[in-house]
């Protein structure tokens, strides 16, 4: 599979403009979600896992009681941020409201 290109800081800043709630820190594209309780948060983890397997691209998912933290970069290019990370973030955003995430 061809390697994705690491994005420039300028490109990352522009793409973050289309992803409210997401930010980059410590080299990872991140967002935290809050839920009404534990089960909806856990259900969203499973849904994200399904999307990640479809895309072949996987974030770090940290599940708390009613919180879920998502953090992703692209391992195959040394942990830089690529369009694959933004693609996954957009797919996650698309399912978030359906899980009651805010
Ligand atoms: C073979 C498989 O597609 C690769 O190892 C994928 C799996 N998931 C991945 N996820 C992330 N975040 N970065 C990768 O480089 C990556 N590589």
TrEMBL record:
Any GO BP: tetrahydrobiopterin biosynthetic process
Keyword set includes Cell membrane: no
Pfam annotation, one family: Pterin_4a
Keywords linked to the UniProt accession: Lyase
UniProt name for this protein: Putative pterin-4-alpha-carbinolamine dehydratase
InterPro entries xrefs: PCD_sf (IPR036428), Pterin_deHydtase (IPR001533)
E.C. number: 4.2.1.96
Class of this enzyme: lyase
Enzymatic reactions: (4aS,6R)-4a-hydroxy-L-erythro-5,6,7,8-tetrahydrobiopterin = (6R)-L-erythro-6,7-dihydrobiopterin + H2O
GO molecular function, one term: 4-alpha-hydroxytetrahydrobiopterin dehydratase activity
Matching NCBIfam families: PRK00823.1-2
Family the UniProt entry places it in: Belongs to the pterin-4-alpha-carbinolamine dehydratase family.
Gene3D superfamilies: Transcriptional coactivator/pterin dehydratase (3.30.1360.20)
Keyword Ubl conjugation: no
SUPFAM superfamilies assigned to the protein according to its UniProt record, in alphabetical order: PCD-like
């Amino acid at each position: 599979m061809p390697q994705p290109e690491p994005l420039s800081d300028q490109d990352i800043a522009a793409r973050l403009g289309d992803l409210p709630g997401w930010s980059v820190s410590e080299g990872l594209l991140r967002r935290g979600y809050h839920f009404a309780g534990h089960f909806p948060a856990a259900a969203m983890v499973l849904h994200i896992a399904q999307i990640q397997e479809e895309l072949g691209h996987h974030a770090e998912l940290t599940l708390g009681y009613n919180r879920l933290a998502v953090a992703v970069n692209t391992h195959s290019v040394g942990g830089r941020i690529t369009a694959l990370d933004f693609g996954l973030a957009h797919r996650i955003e698309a399912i978030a409201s359906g899980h009651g995430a805010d």
